[in-house]
Write a structure and sequence with these properties.
Elements: E1 7-9, E2 19-25, H1 33-44, E3 48-53, E4 67-70, E5 76-79, E6 83-90, E7 93-101, H2 107-121, E8 125-134, E9 144-147, H3 151-157, H4 170-180, E10 185-193, H5 202-216, H6 223-241, H7 244-258, H8 276-303
Parallel strand pairs: 2-7, 2-8, 8-10
Antiparallel strand pairs: 1-3, 3-6, 4-5, 6-7, 9-10
Length: 305
């Protein structure tokens, strides 16, 4: 079986050693920070469709369900939860953006598809984006943890060597696949407040975007995200002010942060947001909404050509 058997090409551009940036909704995506970061890059850069991975072999459709949509004239169609890829030429070189739901099945085969795309274009690096829950206040700058096993990347971008052991998600599997094929890679994680886990955090998305683009060497399209941060802080401030105990807890976190406390450099996947045994319905809705918005953006872009 070819390593690209599940990849459906939407275009065949000529890309030169692109950087691949990935994010997946689900367990690795607390407060939707990572997936929204990549979605904002797709929209802000007006990235073009490149390919998609056929979800049939990798998705438990009882967990992440397809959606029925009505087209013009009332024609029904099924929108499948698909991992998509887009490409763009950035100031620092070509970039491939990967976004979709974390696969449910056959992670090694799924990883082979992405690694096959990386090999096809001679990718120079892969960045995986994630977000975890931590004891951090929403009112302070977002802490970003960057890890890598590549000595050059660790030195150039002040990353950490991850020593984490324990359960992992598709991000961990992809990082291992990169290491086994000698593709330089790094994982960037945003720490989001555990007490506001159900509030999407544009503040964390912005920090992931900026750090990613710093590594890539291209400006981040931040304007649309900046406009959302004030509303986010107002929303969480209201949540906190309605609970005296929570307000006191947040105040302690603020004091500790101001005194130089930072979260542990080790990414503990036990902190991650989603437990599919209890939150699958809400998570599948979030994933579907995210992909619907990207697809709507791309449809509108096509209509304007």
């Amino acid at each position: 079986m070819s390593t690209l058997d599940h990849v459906r090409w939407l275009s065949k551009p000529s890309l030169k050693q692109p950087v691949i940036v990935t994010a997946f909704t689900g367990w690795n995506d607390a407060a939707d920070a990572a997936s929204n970061a990549v979605r904002n890059l797709i929209e802000g850069w007006r990235a073009q469709p490149l390919a998609e991975i056929d979800p049939e072999a990798f998705t438990d459709f009882a967990t992440i369900r397809p959606h029925v949509r009505l087209k013009d004239g009332g024609v029904r169609s099924i929108v499948w939860p698909t991992v998509g890829m887009w490409h763009v030429a950035g100031a620092g070189g070509d970039i491939i953006l990967v976004l979709g739901p974390e696969p449910s099945l056959r992670w090694r085969t799924f990883s082979e598809q992405l690694m096959g795309v990386a090999d096809h274009f001679g990718a120079s690096m892969m960045l995986t984006l994630g977000a975890l829950l931590a004891d951090v206040p929403h009112s302070r700058p977002v802490q970003i943890i960057g890890t890598s096993t590549d000595a050059d990347l660790v030195e150039r971008f002040s990353l950490q060597r991850s020593r984490y052991e324990g359960p992992t998600g598709i991000i961990g599997v992809l990082q291992e696949a990169c290491e086994s094929t000698a593709l330089p890679s790094a994982a960037l994680w945003a720490a989001v407040p555990a007490y506001a886990s159900q509030v999407p955090s544009p503040k964390a998305s912005l920090s992931l975007m900026r750090r990613s683009c710093e590594i890539i060497g291209t400006p981040a399209p931040v304007a649309s995200v900046m406009n959302l941060i004030e509303r986010y802080e107002e929303q969480v401030n209201t949540l906190v002010s309605d609970d005296e105990d929570l307000a006191a807890y947040v105040e302690r976190l603020e004091t500790m942060t101001d005194n130089g406390m930072s979260i542990d450099d080790e990414v503990d996947d036990g902190q991650l947001q989603f437990d599919f045994a209890t939150d699958s319905g809400e998570d599948e809705a979030d994933a579907a909404t995210l992909m619907d918005e990207v697809e709507q953006f791309l449809r509108e872009q096509g209509d304007g050509k």
